[in-house]
TrEMBL record, chain A:
Subcellular location: Cell inner membrane
Chain's gene name: gsiA_1
Main subcellular location of this protein, as a coarse class: membrane
Key word Kinase present: no
Keyword Cell membrane listed: yes
Name of protein: Glutathione import ATP-binding protein GsiA
Organism of origin: Limimaricola soesokkakensis
Membrane topology qualifier: Peripheral membrane protein
UniProtKB/TrEMBL annotation, chain B:
InterPro entries, A to Z: BPD_transp_1_N, MetI-like, MetI-like_sf
Family as reported in the entry's similarity comment: Belongs to the binding-protein-dependent transport system permease family.
Species of the source: Limimaricola soesokkakensis
Matching Gene3D superfamilies: MetI-like
Gene name tied to this protein: gsiC_1
Name of the featured protein: Glutathione transport system permease protein GsiC
UniProt superkingdom: Bacteria
Membrane-spanning ranges: 12-33, 115-138, 159-177, 197-215, 250-276, 296-321
Membrane topology: Multi-pass membrane protein
Length: 547, 330
């Protein structure tokens, strides 16, 4: 039997600065019927572009410059627009990264679900609605009869992602492209979505291309894995083989990243005064209380990781500490001294001591200022240095973040990579000579190799400068790598806190346990095992019975 | 739904406050006009006693805040006063001729203006939005560029120029439409429409460009959204993608620019009225300023301000309603 999808020597170019640059340099891809292929690589590797090209679709400013895409005997490169359109949504469907952004906010879920079957003449509206409810049930959405009649903003992220999978299934396509469908979700939600996607793909024997940058996720989902690097294929192998015996150095490096581990520092003595003490802080946005009696200490030279899912109050805690959000109750002490609640009332020196680094280095740097200007401003503001002394200090800071001043001082942020931008963010925080740096999800938007580089840099700076870190993250791998102490937050409250080794050793608080066990592992059987432990497989069978 | 009603009530209250402030500004500004009605009506040779008598009779000798309070109180009860120019001061009877009230003066003119604005809106809004959608659909094609050039040239030409060109084309070269729009009470709707068509077309050419370009821009602004890509990847046709997926989310900016242009139709069409001798409120306004007929000027200003506020308020409310997050809270 011929494969369902056959891509040969595909070349794709993207337009920037009035020139065409290669994005995909001659990649082959073969997908059998009922097979799930994992497509993995860092951002910019061309995964999404390749996934969309498998649908015969390219985004604006992108063109296919060579090669062929054959879908079930149809040449998508030479098919008419009309022919391609009749395949899209009907025989090839797409599940996007952010369901919240990919559902139209103006229409109910069900109206968007039935659109493809009705327009392609597969089902009429009534049949399609009934089918949607059946799919919602199979995907274990709560209230399958009603959930479709809500607007996207009325449904949670994990549920939307499942509803989008249901929508992709609406015409029972032969092929679904999953483009990072769980990247935007919390770990506990991710599990449900992964299990639901895998079940339904199995049940209908749908072929799929599963795009992700998360190795552990792809290990659960794919039969085969293809690794991409800057538009080139690195290697392809069946999942188990790839996990056990990666052939190429690049693949091995991807596997190794998760090995970074910084030993926990010895516990502070009883006489140690915490550099930062958060005591009974309650804070609210208007009427809504978002932090409830939050207390924890950060001792000098240590790293405290604050973990929790989105909406748990991690970033709000940072806002209270920096004085952006004066608390309703409680106090924040710096070296034993209470800080004024609002940053407006704090002295320049108090402001200098606590600095922040943000998740989106992109938006936190002024695109019109050179690196020297960006880093130089806080130097001038806090130390009053001018002229040559200022320039020397900026160079020193750039050296500290391992970026050659001679090359980078006059560049603009737009000319840097994601990791380099984050380094500039670190240099800007260092410019104030702080004692404590709050890192808000600083590695979440970065690829693993780059993220590891940033973590190592932060560790080195801590050793050299005696810095303390408050490390806000939802990624437990990062916590394992660098934290000395862990604070687990949920719904604005501290659930559990303690030294890292204790936190990662049972017994845990049930919520910590749920968080920890939800982090995907590099073992193809992990998801099955976990679902079995949690007793979820019964639900999967129930769904199968209804077929 | 409760939150929507609350927002609407809030906006209404704000609109009333704005109107109050504007009324004070109008009253102050009108009274800053040099010269006064008594002087204007009696001429250069009037005796100071005669001027003073008329000023007393009209209440012009009272201090400004007192006159403002009196005027505001009357206006709130629907009495906009008596037109200075129409009242017969020579007789000194003290009785007011009903046809001399400001309301009687403005009423029919205002109705005419609304008719003209209505006809124009009925042509211009669907035309502009339709052209905007098509321009977005066929972006960067000859159609898009042609529509842009055509609407931009019409908005860049002075209104009277557009008006005379249309008269030349449709009343002189091909005499299919009347060049004078002298409508009067008792005309049938059809006759009115025929007489109003040329000024309405002129105004259409003036207001279409703005609305069309905003429609196009608002839609194109959304075309990079993931849900638009999703609709395409579901195999939807380009027109459906725009009509069903982009337009509902682009309504807020479009409604706002439509409201601004409708407000212009109510308040800013003096030149077109003059060219076509159309008996609208704009001409009355200009004549009253010339005559220092303060009650009429004030009433016109108040109507203009109210129209602006009301239309913008409507736009605000419509864009709030077009947002499903407000219509259907969690």
């Amino acid at each position: 039997m011929t494969p369902l999808l056959e891509i040969r020597d595909l070349r794709i170019e993207g337009r920037s600065d009035e020139e065409w640059h290669p994005i995909i340099n001659g990649v082959d891809l073969t997908l059998g019927r009922g097979e799930v292929l994992g497509l993995i690589g860092e951002s910019g590797a061309g995964k999404s572009t390749l996934g969309l090209a498998a649908m015969g679709y390219v985004r604006d400013g992108v063109r296919i410059s060579g090669g062929s895409v054959m879908f079930d005997g149809i040449d998508l490169m030479n098919a008419s627009t009309e022919e391609k359109r009749s395949l899209l949504g009907r025989r090839i469907a797409y599940v996007a990264q952010s369901a919240a952004a990919s559902f139209n906010p103006a229409h109910k879920l069900i109206d968007q679900h039935v659109e493809a079957p009705v327009r392609h003449g597969v089902q009429d509206r009534g049949e399609s609605i009934e089918d949607a409810i059946e799919l919602y049930r199979k995907l274990r959405l709560p209230n399958p009869e009603e959930i479709g009649f809500r607007y996207p903003h009325q449904v949670s992220g994990g549920q939307l992602q499942r509803a989008m999978t249901a929508m992709a299934m609406s015409c029972r396509p032969d092929l679904i492209i999953f483009d990072e469908p769980t990247t935007a979700l919390d770990v506990t939600t991710q599990i449900e979505v992964l299990a639901a996607i895998r079940d339904i793909v199995d049940q209908f024997g749908t072929s799929a291309i599963y795009i992700t940058h998360d190795l552990a996720v792809v290990a659960q989902m794919a039969d085969r894995i293809k690794v991409l690097l800057r538009g080139d294929e690195v290697e392809t192998a069946p999942t188990r083989e790839m996990l056990d015996h990666p052939r190429e150095d690049y693949t091995k490096s991807l596997w190794a990243v998760r090995g970074y581990h910084r030993p926990e520092k010895p516990k502070p003595g009883p006489e140690s005064v915490p550099i930062l003490a958060v005591e009974g802080v309650t804070a609210a946005y208007g009427e809504q209380v978002v932090l409830n009696e939050v207390s924890f200490d950060i001792h000098p030279g240590r790293t405290v990781a604050v973990v929790g899912e989105s909406g748990s109050g991690k970033s709000t805690t940072a806002r209270v500490i920096t004085g952006l959000l004066p608390p309703r109750d409680g106090v924040v002490r710096f070296e034993g001294e209470a800080l004024p609640p609002s940053y407006r009332q704090r002295s320049k020196d108090q402001l200098r001591q606590i600095q922040m680094i943000y998740q989106m280095a992109d938006t936190a740097l002024n695109p019109r200022q050179t690196i020297a200007q960006i880093v130089g401003r806080p130097v001038r503001f806090y130390s009053g240095l001018k002229g040559r002394k200022l320039a020397a200090r900026v160079d020193e800071l750039l050296d500290q973040i391992e970026m050659d001043p001679a090359i980078y001082r006059d560049r603009l942020p737009g000319e840097l990579s994601g990791g380099q931008k984050q380094r500039v963010g670190i240099a800007r925080a260092l410019a104030a000579e702080p004692r404590l740096i709050i890192c808000d999800e600083v590695t979440s938007a970065l690829d693993q190799l780059v993220a590891e580089g940033i973590l190592k840099l932060l560790a080195r700076l801590q050793d050299e400068l005696g810095l303390s870190y408050m490390f806000i993250t939802h990624d437990l791998a990062t916590v394992k790598a660098i934290a000395d102490e862990v604070v687990v937050m949920k719904e604005g409250q501290v659930i559990e806190q303690g030294p890292k080794t204790e936190m990662f050793t049972p017994p845990h608080h049930p919520y910590t346990d749920l968080l920890l066990s939800s982090v995907p592992e590099m073992d193809p059987d992990w998801l099955d095992r976990l679902l079995a432990e949690r007793g979820v497989e019964a639900l999967g069978e129930a769904a199968t019975d209804k077929m | 739904m409760g939150s929507v009603i609350r927002i609407v009530l809030q906006r209404l209250a704000l609109g009333l406050v704005t109107l109050l402030i504007v009324s004070a500004v109008i009253f102050g500004a009108v009274n800053l006009l040099p010269g006064d009605f008594a002087q204007a009506v009696l001429g250069q040779s009037a005796t100071p006693e005669a001027v003073a008598a008329i000023r007393t009779q009209l209440g012009l000798d009272q201090p400004l805040p007192v006159r403002y309070a009196q005027w505001l109180w009357d206006a709130a009860r629907g009495d906009l006063g008596v037109s200075f120019a129409q009242a017969n001061f020579a007789s000194f009877t003290g009785r007011v001729d009903p046809s001399a009230t400001v309301l009687a003066q403005i009423g029919p003119r205002f109705a005419n203006t609304m008719f003209l604005a209505g006809v124009t809106a009925a042509i211009a809004v669907p035309l502009a939005v339709g052209l905007g959608i098509l321009a977005a659909l066929w972006r960067d094609t000859a159609f898009d560029k042609g529509a842009n050039i055509a609407t931009l040239s019409s908005i860049s030409s002075p209104e009277f120029f557009v008006a005379y060109i249309l008269i030349l084309l449709f009343a002189v070269v091909n005499p299919v439409l009347p060049s004078l729009s002298n409508i009067f009470p008792g005309m049938s709707f059809g006759e009115r429409l025929e007489k109003t068509l040329l000024p309405a077309l002129t105004l259409t050419l003036v207001v279409t460009a703005h609305m069309m370009r905003m429609t196009r821009a608002a839609i194109l602004n959304l075309m990079a959204q993931p849900y638009i890509e999703m609709a395409r990847l579901k195999g939807m046709r380009p027109l459906r993608v725009i009509w069903r997926h982009a337009l509902p989310n682009a309504l807020a900016p479009i409604v706002n620019v439509v409201a601004l242009n409708l407000a212009y139709l109510v308040t800013g069409v003096v030149v077109v009225e003059v060219v076509f001798v159309y008996p609208g409120i704009g001409q009355l306004f200009v004549d009253s300023v010339k005559l220092r007929d303060i009650p009429v000027v004030q009433a016109c200003c108040l109507i203009f301000a109210a129209a602006y506020i009301l239309l913008n308020l409507t736009a605000d409310i419509l864009s709030i309603i077009s947002n499903p997050r407000l219509r259907h809270p969690k």
